Amino acid sequence: MLTSHKTLTMMQYEVTQNNATEPPFQNEFWNTFEPGIYVDITTGEPLFASSDKFESGCGWPSFSKPIVPNVISEKTDTSHGMSRTEVRSRVGNAHLGHVFDDGPKETGSLRYCINSASLRFIRKEEMEREGYGYLLELIN
């Protein structure tokens, strides 16, 4: 696993290992909409496809669903005086963000609000070379 200070930036480490949240509208992928997949920065496990990404106006990358449901785990988060559902990566147990029920109705009403710092983006044209060619059919 890549969960050390030596392999992650300070922000990536704080988000994935200490449940931090990066600033909205000031993160790498909030307004990226090119074809590809998003993988766990700590393990490389595929998490989200660009075909499920949408503009939510929240300032963080938003997805309607993970690539497959079991790549993430959910847990109740009562920090900051509110009750939310935290999402973590399955293999790396990295903090990713939160899931809310205010997403597009046509895709199931979920909004996975994810920190860019917890993700690595693999462009469609790089997926085969990076070992993710088996997921190409998910990309529009």
UniProtKB/TrEMBL annotation:
Molecular function GO terms recorded: peptide-methionine (R)-S-oxide reductase activity
SUPFAM superfamilies xrefs: Mss4-like (SSF51316)
Keyword NADP belongs to the record: no
Domain MsrB: 1-124
Similarity field: Belongs to the MsrB Met sulfoxide reductase family.
Recorded catalytic activity of this chain's protein: L-methionyl-[protein] + [thioredoxin]-disulfide + H2O = L-methionyl-(R)-S-oxide-[protein] + [thioredoxin]-dithiol
Alphabetical list of HAMAP family matching this protein: MsrB
Superkingdom field: Bacteria
A Pfam family it matches: SelR
Keyword Oxidoreductase among UniProt keywords: yes
Name of the protein described by the UniProt record: Peptide methionine sulfoxide reductase MsrB
EC number: 1.8.4.12
Any GO BP annotation: response to oxidative stress
Cellular component GO terms, alphabetical: cytoplasm
Active site: C113 (nucleophile)
Gene field: msrAB_2
Keyword vocabulary terms for this entry: Oxidoreductase
